[in-house]
Write a structure and sequence with these properties.
The chain is an alpha+beta fold. It has a single domain, classed as Aminopeptidase (3-Layer(aba) Sandwich), CATH 3.40.630. It is built from 6 helices and 7 strands, in the order βαααβββαβαββα. It has a 7-stranded mixed β-sheet, with helices on both faces. A hairpin with a 4-residue loop joins β2 (59-65) and β3 (70-84). The relative contact order is 0.15. It binds coenzyme A.
Length: 170
């Protein structure tokens, strides 16, 4: 892992477990994340849990391991939202706890989630959407090879091909 953590800490990225439901709920609906989403509604915890149990295999979670504790600090979900000819269209969702930001955690998470997509063997187009003033998110995607395809006053759209013939040549 390349993230710059204190020497006693180790960053781990792994598949989510059903028991991560509560962590994902708290982070997804925390003020420091919700402010970057257009839909500000908070679902009932029971409906979130039901959804998470069904889809938890789509999530990767970042955890910080120290000698005496393990703390979950971020997650990424790559959601398949459709097919464009033979390409899967994937919408990423990524977030890191406020206190763990700016240390490369999202970069590690995104790389790991993309690797999982690649391993599945289906060519994909990952299409990220960020609010115009979400500089951290835009920078995250751009510095990981995503290209802006469209923007308006409110949003920016960025895409990256994964597992396609063109992306394999990069
Ligand atoms: C976007 C988010 C996931 C980034 O997490 P992070 O762990 O702090 O990001 P990283 O430390 O891996 O940094 C990734 C890149 O973004 C840049 N970056 C991080 N915070 C930034 C900020 N506030 N402003 C500008 N650039 C920033 C970093 O310098 C880095 O770029 P580099 O690789 O060229 O150096 C985090 O800010 C977050 O959870 N935001 C709320 C949820 C959200 O907006 N999710 C995205 C919705 S699509």
């Amino acid at each position: 892992m390349t993230a710059n953590h204190h020497s006693s800490e180790r960053l781990g990225i792994e598949a989510a477990r059903i028991s991560d439901s509560s962590f994902v709920f708290k982070l997804r609906y925390s003020d420091s994340v919700r402010c970057f989403f257009e839909d500000k509604t908070i679902p009932h915890y029971s409906s979130h849990t039901k959804f998470f149990q069904k889809h938890h295999h789509e999530y990767t979670v970042a955890r910080l391991y120290t000698s005496d504790t393990t703390k979950s600090i971020g997650f990424c979900r790559m959601k398949c939202v459709g097919l464009v000819s033979d390409l899967r269209l994937i919408e990423p969702s990524i977030m890191v706890s406020k206190e763990a930001r700016g240390r490369g955690v999202a970069r590690e998470l995104l790389g790991s989630a993309e690797w999982e997509l690649k391993k599945n063997g289906f060519p994909c187009i990952v299409c990220a959407k960020a609010l115009h003033d979400n500089l951290a998110s835009i920078r995250l995607f751009e510095s990981n090879g995503y290209k802006r395809i469209e923007s308006n006053q409110a949003r920016v759209w960025l895409i990256k091909a994964i597992g396609t013939v063109a992306s394999n040549r990069d």
